[in-house]
Amino acid sequence: MKQELLAPAGDIEAGYAALYYGADAVYLGLKHFSARATAANFSEDDLNAFVAYAHSLNRKVYVAINTLVQEDELPELLKTLDVCVKYQVDALIVQDLGVARVVRESYPELELHASTQMAVHNKEGALALQKLGFSRVVLARELTLGEIKEIAAIPNLETEAFIHGALCYSYSGLCMFSSLETGKSANRGKCLYPCRAVFEGEQGAKHYFSMKDMALQSDVLKMPVTSLKIEGRKKTALYVAAVVDYYRHILDGKGDDATKAEHIRQIFSRPWTKFHLHGKNKDVIDRDFVGHRGLKIGKIGNVSKNILTFKTNHKIARFDGIQIDVPGEEKPFGFSLQNLRVNAKNVFEAKAGENVEIKLPPFAPNLVKGLDIYLASASEVKGAYDYEKPKPGAYKQRYPIDVSVRVEKDKISAETESFYYEVSGNFEKAENPAKTLDAAQKAFAKTGETDFVLQNLEVLNPQGLFVPASMFNELRRGLYESIKVEDKPRILPDIPQPFDAKEPKWIIKTDKIESLSKIDLQEVDEVIFLLSVDTKPEALRNLPKNKLRLALPTVCRHTKLFEPLIEQLLSEGYKKWEIGNYWALSVLPKKGIDLSFDYPLYVMNSQASSSAKEMGAKRVTFSPEDVLQNIKNLVEVSPLPMVLPVYGDVPLFISADCIRSNACKDCPRGEKWLKLKRGGISYEALSRDCQIMLFDTRPLCFASEAKEIKAAAYRVDFCYRSYTAGKAAEIWAKVRKFEDIENCAKANINKPALL
Asked: What span, in angstroms and rounded, lies between the C-alpha atoms of 319 and 298?
């Protein structure tokens, strides 16, 4: 099986570059619903031209509609999907359950790919999405080669995995850091990347969460997936060209070309990592610097009177860009080479191995011997990736039409479907009737700038009459001008009857039973207990079984560790369950349980709620990053009861990338809290079982706003942090009166819109 090399395109130029250098498929975003909303993205005309051109080369185009959609955006979603159908894209990359439902019901001709934002990190999650109608699953970046192989072995399911590009610290789709702290949601394509910032921590001021770039290089040959994906919809056409060219070379059996790899590093690159492909890897974070570094070409030998000397291990030239790591600075110091000297002579170019002198710009920081020097851009490389592209207007998607022409003595007529046109005249017997047929063929083949192309032409000329070419052209123009190609309007799928919430219930969620000892559980309608692999079933007997719901963790890399516990609890009669990821759908029974969706299975529109109902959910949970207006809109139309979390410590992200200072072999693996600070805000990172969660020290609290929301239930969470029984009881009593806790965070609840 030939594997697909899938390239990013933030604009049409990057798309053309990708195709020229050998991409088998390109993924892109439109002006709405793209998880790279700040990229240039494609207009409708761009999409039309690009898909037509790609299809002429027998390549594929996928459109990313991979953001969460709010209730009032559903009509705009239909317009976007109409465009995708009109221009015959090959598949959609989707995160939102509601979008998936709309596509399945109203646009069945569009193929569905599950975005990496759906956080598929095990075989069970992939199987669940396959049953939901997804033909392909984009895997979480964090997976090892063994885990990838297990998922890729699922019959009749395509798999797609990232092989190169920027990495998020969090599992994709499970990060609300930017949203909850800045109001710009990663799940809406507006991430401000606060994880890249400097934090004060146990080792001082560092970039504790700033990831290196993934670069699997020749290890791509070991990947068993259908599609090998390059990240980079915010990168330039030059970058896309270089990366596609590099991996095309490897996949075509021509080897790992060191020069091509150097080109990528010069155009844009953080330090490279294989991530966790070969197992747990702590060398994935660049703590000291952030952003583009370039190709390392040497170290400072000496600095004197603004003259820097060093021995270069790579060719450099005037006007190339240089960067130098400067201790204490967040980003490397960069400048353009305005002069270059070798052996006391001015030169335009220095060869590898030569000692060079560079005059530093007047604003240079204090530079000392031994600092690393990088080639951050080179004129030679900038000119090394020319690419061909079609002339403007040369390609567009056209509808095929069949035309029937009839020649009679007093008129000629043409029709296609319901459109008809005729031209009057006096037509005599033809000396050569074949010429009449040829003239008609030539005339009607000219579709010009229309939205259609001639597929079949039938010419009925039973009397063998002659028609001048000019009259066939007149007939063609008249018919083609009368044709109005109108797509059949699509509508949103019906949703079930909205759920009418009566007296709201109150729910407590916890992972520590002892936190509830001073709360009168008679006041609580339901207790949700968050399970772990260490949970002892007998401990649950201290909670009222009729009120107890068991929650499975969002991330579970090894489901077999949970299966014995789940089986035992099911056998003991526990029927109420809550899930936060698709994997749990494959391990819980399809019938006989009361299933609740937690907020990582995002529900921000009525179509998503309807999808959850069809999947067996009895209720769903509002996302903590949502805004009050959308919550109010949704509660009126949701066919399922909706739970509003009114208090809790919400993970800003969930990550597989450890920030402990110790090596893995020296790790005690127990629970450890690390204190961090950025911009006057204090954070705490929980490290446990090779997983990191980050929390604002201020809990989220929507108690005062909850009075305005007709939710089916309000939920108070005492998870992750240790709450004394007294503190938990105090919070419970206050929040139940719709009073906020002091020094709480509000996230986006009172903002006019979720960005």
From this structure: 18
